[in-house]
Design brief:
It is a single chain. It is globular and about 105 Å long. Strand 9 (187-191) and strand 10 (194-199) form a beta hairpin. By secondary structure, the chain is of the alpha+beta class. The strands form ten sheets. The protein has an eight-stranded mixed beta sheet with strand order 15-23-25-24-26-31-27-30, with helices on both faces. Strands 5, 6, 9, 10, 11 and 14 form a six-stranded mixed beta sheet that branches. A four-stranded antiparallel beta sheet has the order 2-3-1-4. Among the domains are: 250-280 and 408-702, Aminopeptidase; 286-389; 709-796, no CATH class. 19% of the residues lie in helices and 27% in strands. The protein is built from 13 helices and 38 strands. The longest helix is centred in the last third of the chain and has 27 residues, at 676-702.
Length: 797
C-alpha cells in the first residue's frame, strides 16, 4: 500500500515538520540553452485577435508531451489517458490547431469553446488491453500500492487502485481489478519511457464499497488487497459564528490588492502589508503596427510605451505614383510616412527589407520607432501601400495602472516578529487561473473576520505568521481579464525581432512556474521550453523575472516560513516535490526521505479532508503525490525552489477537480474560468484546504514530543513501526548511529519502507528516529557523544 495506508488515521497533533536541512542539491550538468531566435512552429501561427479554445490533443506517451511543448503548444496541466496514448488539453487558436494537425498531432474535440469559458464534457474511452499471452516461465510479483474508496461531490462513491507488476516493462502485461462480480482493466502508467505502475486513471464509480479487491495479471499472478477509506479525517465543525463567502465575483489584481490593503487597515493589530522589492514590468507594452503579409510585411515598434506616446503614432506606406521615384522616409507630427521606390513604369519596387533599412536609417523615424521584417521571411517581397495606427493592444479601463506593479503580501498574525511558524500562500503564477486568487483572498478574510468570534481561528492567528500573496502575476492577470483570457505567462517580452511582431503578442511572456533555480531547464531538466513564444517558456535565465525573485526574497527575508502552498488550476491535483526530472533515464531531483514523504502524505490527508468538508469534493488519490509521479516533469517550478533551497514543505493545489456527471456517467473537466457559481464553490473548498494547511503548520510549531519506534523482525528483514512519520538512521556494526548513518528507505515509488536485510546469526541494531519537526527519539543527540539511541539484538536462523 501507499505510505499512509498501513497506518491508522492520526489526529493532527502527531503531524510535525522538517527534521533536517537537506544536503546540497546535485543538479544535472548540461549546457545553458538560449531562448530561440525563431518562433516555434505552433506559436508562429499566432495572430492577434484570433480567439483561442481549449482542445484535446492525443499523443502517444509522456515523451510526446515534451515534444508538444517544444513545438510551442500551450499545454495545460490537465492530462488523461485515451486509446493508444494520452489526451492533453492545449490552448490554441484555430490556426494553431491547423499547425498541430500538419505536425501530425491528433487534435480532438473542443473542451472549452471560444464563446464560452465553461468546460464542455470531454468524453474519454477507457483503454482496454486484452492479451492472451501467458508467462508460464516467468515469476511475477504484484506489489499493491493502494486500494481506497472515497466519496466525492454529489455523494457518489468511487474506488481507486494502484499496483506494480515486476513484468511492467512488458507492455503486453494486463492487470485487472475484480470486486463484487465486476472486473475493470487497469491503465498502465508509463512516463519518460519508463513503466511506473498500473492504476485506474479515472476512479470507478461503485454503489457498494468492497471490503477487498483482487488484482489479476495476464502473467498469471494475483493479489488480494483490503480496501481502506481515502480522506474523511474527523474534523470539528466550525462554530455558528464562523463566516465564509467573502468573494462574490472574479477579481482582477487591482481589486485584489485594494482588498488586502483595506483588510490590513481594518485589522492593524492582526495584519500588515509587506511590499516585495521587485516591481513587475507593468501592464504595458510598446505600440506596434504592421503593413503587408508574409514576405511583403514589415512592422514597427515604438520606443515609448503605448500609453506614454507610442499609441499616438501612425505608420503609412504610399505609392508616389511617379516613375523612378526613390525610396524615402519622412515624419510629420506622429506619422512615419514611407514613400515607396518605383521603377520606370511607376510600379513600386521596394522590398519590405529595404523599407525596414530605410526606416531604421532615417533619424526622425528611428527616433520614434524600430522597424523589422516579419518573422523569418527576410522581407523579400515587394512592400505594399497601407496605413495603420500604432497600438499597444491593451484594452483595460483607465483605472488599471500601466506602471510597474508592486506585489504585496498581507502578513497575518497576532505576533509578527519571526518567532512563530511561518506559512506562505500564493496564487496566480499563471494569469488565466482566475479562481486561485479568490482562494487566497477568502482565506485572509476568514482569518481576520472570524478572529474575534471563533476560538480555532484565534489559535491559528495567535500561533502562526501567515503571508498571503493573492496574485504573483498581476500584469499577466490584467492581460487575461481585459485582452486575452488564455494568457498563462507574465507580460515581459523577451522575444527577438523574428518573433516579436504584433501577431505574436498573445504568446509573449515567461511561464513563472518554470523560472526558478532548482531543477531548471538550464540544468537539463524536462518540462520547460527555450522558445520565447511557448506557453512553457522558462525565461532567458533562472530567476530572470521579478515575480519569481519576489517569492525567493520573501522566503529568505522570513526564514521562519516552513510551509508553502502554491494555488493553481485546474484538474484537482495535490502535489509536492520532486517536481522535475531529467528526461533521459527519468532521473528526478532527490526524493524526500521516507519520513518526509510520509509526512507529506499525512499532512495531505488532513488538508484534503478539509477541502472535502465544503461540498464533498475528493481530490483523487491518483492525483495526489509528488508532481513528477502523478503529472509530468515541470522544470524550474517554485515548490522545488522552496523545498530544496530552504527546506520549506511546499504543496501545489490544482483547484477545479473534475465533476462527475451522473447522467452521462463520466467526469467533466472545469477549465480555468468556470462560471462564477462553480468558481465560488472551488474557492470555498480550497480555502478550507488552506485553513487545513494552517492547522498542520500550527501542530508543527507546537510539536516538542519525541517520536517512538518499535523494531520488528520479519522474514524479509528488520522493519520499524512508528508513532508518526519519521526518518530512521541505523547501524548494524555496533557503532553509534548519527545523521550520516544509513537510513530506512522506501521500497520504491509510492511504496512503504524496505526491510533491512540481515545475515544469519545475531545482529546488534542501533537506531534513532527523528520526526518532521526535528524531535529525536529518546531526546538522543546524534551530533554529540551519547548512548541514548535505541538498541536491540536480533537473531536470524
Amino acid at each position: 500500500m501507499a505510505p499512509q495506508t498501513p497506518r491508522p488515521r492520526r489526529r493532527l497533533a502527531v503531524l510535525a515538520a522538517l527534521p533536517l536541512l537537506l544536503a546540497g542539491l546535485p543538479l544535472a550538468a548540461g549546457a545553458e540553452p538560449e531562448p530561440d531566435d525563431v518562433a516555434s512552429p505552433v506559436s508562429a501561427a499566432a495572430t492577434t485577435g484570433e480567439a483561442t479554445e481549449i482542445v484535446e490533443v492525443t499523443v502517444a506517451d509522456q515523451d510526446a508531451i515534451a515534444g508538444l511543448i517544444e513545438a510551442g503548444a500551450d499545454v495545460t496541466e490537465y492530462t488523461r489517458p485515451a486509446d493508444g496514448g494520452l489526451v492533453v488539453h492545449v490552448v490554441a487558436t484555430p490556426a494553431e490547431q491547423a499547425v498541430l494537425r500538419d505536425l501530425g498531432y491528433a487534435v480532438g474535440e473542443v473542451v472549452v469553446s471560444a464563446a464560452e469559458t465553461e468546460a464542455v464534457v470531454a468524453e474519454r474511452d477507457a483503454a482496454v488491453r486484452r492479451v492472451n499471452q501467458t508467462f508460464a516461465r516467468m515469476a511475477e510479483t504484484l506489489t499493491p500500492l493502494r486500494a481506497e474508496w472515497f466519496e466525492s461531490v454529489g455523494g457518489q462513491t468511487y474506488l481507486g487502485v494502484e499496483v506494480k507488476t515486476s513484468l511492467g516493462a512488458d507492455s503486453n502485461v494486463t492487470l485487472t481489478v475484480g470486486f463484487g462480480g465486476q472486473t475493470v482493466t487497469m491503465d498502465r502508467f508509463v512516463d519518460a519511457g519508463q513503466y511506473i505502475y498500473h492504476t485506474l486513471f479515472e476512479p470507478v464509480a461503485v454503489d457498494d464499497v468492497p471490503a477487498e479487491v483482487t488484482v489479476t495479471s495476464s502473467g498469471g499472478a494475483s493479489v488480494t488487497v483490503p480496501v481502506v477509506e481515502w480522506l474523511g479525517d474527523p474534523r470539528p465543525d466550525p462554530g455558528p459564528h464562523y463566516a465564509t463567502g467573502f468573494v462574490d465575483h472574479y477579481m482582477d489584481p487591482t481589486e485584489l490588492y485594494d482588498r488586502i490593503e483595506a483588510l490590513a487597515a481594518e485589522f492593524p493589530e492582526l495584519a500588515e502589508i509587506v511590499e516585495l522589492p521587485y516591481q513587475t514590468n507593468g501592464y504595458r507594452r510598446k505600440a506596434q503596427a504592421m503593413i503587408g503579409a508574409g514576405a511583403t510585411a514589415f512592422y514597427v515598434t515604438s520606443h515609448d510605451w503605448g500609453h506614454e506616446g507610442g499609441n499616438d503614432l501612425r505608420l503609412e506606406t504610399v505609392n508616389p505614383g511617379t516613375a523612378n521615384s526613390p525610396l524615402s522616409v519622412g515624419v510629420t507630427g506622429g506619422t512615419v510616412r514611407v514613400s515607396l521606390g518605383t521603377d520606370a513604369a511607376g510600379v513600386p519596387n521596394s522590398t519590405a527589407a529595404q523599407v525596414v533599412a530605410a526606416v531604421n536609417a532615417a533619424p526622425a523615424a528611428s527616433a520614434l520607432v524600430t522597424a523589422a521584417t516579419y518573422r523569418t521571411t527576410g522581407g523579400t517581397g515587394i512592400a505594399v501601400a497601407g496605413a495603420q495606427d500604432l497600438s499597444d493592444g491593451l484594452d483595460a479601463p483607465a483605472g488599471i495602472s500601466r506602471e510597474p506593479f508592486s506585489v504585496r503580501a498581507i502578513r497575518i498574525g497576532k505576533v509578527r516578529d519571526g518567532s512563530r511558524t511561518g506559512v506562505f500562500a500564493y496564487s496566480q503564477e499563471h494569469a488565466r487561473e482566475w479562481v486561485t486568487p479568490l482562494v487566497a483572498l477568502e482565506t485572509a478574510e476568514r482569518l481576520l473576520r472570524n478572529y474575534a468570534n471563533d476560538a480555532d481561528t484565534k489559535k491559528l492567528v495567535d500561533d502562526l505568521d501567515i503571508f498571503i500573496v493573492p496574485s504573483v502575476n498581476p500584469d499577466g492577470a490584467h492581460y487575461s481579464f481585459y485582452d486575452f483570457n488564455g494568457q498563462r505567462k507574465n507580460l515581459t517580452n523577451h522575444c527577438p525581432a523574428t518573433s516579436g511582431d504584433p501577431a505574436s503578442a498573445n504568446s509573449w511572456g515567461v511561464d513563472l512556474n518554470r523560472n526558478f533555480s532548482v531543477g531548471s531547464r538550464f540544468d537539463g531538466y524536462s518540462g520547460a521550453s527555450a522558445s520565447c513564444t511557448s506557453g512553457n517558456f522558462s525565461g532567458p535565465a533562472e530567476l530572470s523575472e521579478p515575480e519569481a525573485r519576489n517569492e525567493v526574497w520573501l522566503t529568505e527575508q522570513y526564514p521562519n516560513i516552513r510551509f508553502a502552498m502554491n494555488v493553481h488550476s485546474y484538474g484537482g491535483y495535490f502535489m509536492w516535490p520532486p517536481g522535475a526530472y531529467v528526461q533521459n533515464g527519468r532521473v528526478p531531483l532527490p526524493r524526500p526521505t521516507l519520513g518526509e514523504e510520509n509526512y507529506f502524505w499525512a499532512a495531505s490527508s488532513h488538508i484534503l479532508s478539509a477541502v472535502q468538508d465544503w461540498r464533498g469534493t475528493a481530490v483523487w488519490p491518483g492525483r495526489t503525490g509528488p508532481v513528477s509521479d502523478v503529472l509530468y516533469s515541470a522544470a524550474g517550478n517554485s515548490a522545488d525552489e522552496h523545498w530544496y533551497n530552504r527546506g520549506i514543505f511546499g504543496w501545489d493545489f490544482e483547484v477545479g477537480a473534475d465533476l462527475w456527471d451522473p447522467v452521462e456517467r463520466e467526469w467533466d473537466p472545469q477549465g480555468f474560468q468556470p462560471p462564477f457559481a462553480e468558481g465560488y464553490e472551488q474557492a470555498m473548498e480550497f480555502s478550507n484546504g488552506l485553513v487545513g494547511l494552517l492547522e498542520v503548520a500550527r501542530a508543527y510549531g507546537r510539536d516538542n514530543r519525541p517520536p517512538r519506534t518499535t523494531l520488528e523482525l520479519t522474514d524479509a528483514g528488520v522493519t520499524f513501526e512508528a508513532t508518526e512519520p519519521v526518518t530512521i538512521h541505523y547501524t548494524l556494526d555496533g557503532s553509534r548511529p548519527t545523521y550520516e548513518s544509513p537510513r530506512v528507505e522506501s521500497s520504491g515509488l509510492r511504496e512503504g519502507a524496505a526491510p533491512i536485510p540481515l545475515g544469519a546469526g545475531s545482529t546488534r541494531v542501533h537506531w534513532f528516529s527523528v520526526d518532521a519537526a526535528g524531535n529525536v527519539e529518546n531526546r538522543y543527540d546524534p551530533l554529540r557523544p551519547s548512548s541514548s539511541y535505541r538498541k536491540q539484538t536480533v537473531r536470524v536462523g
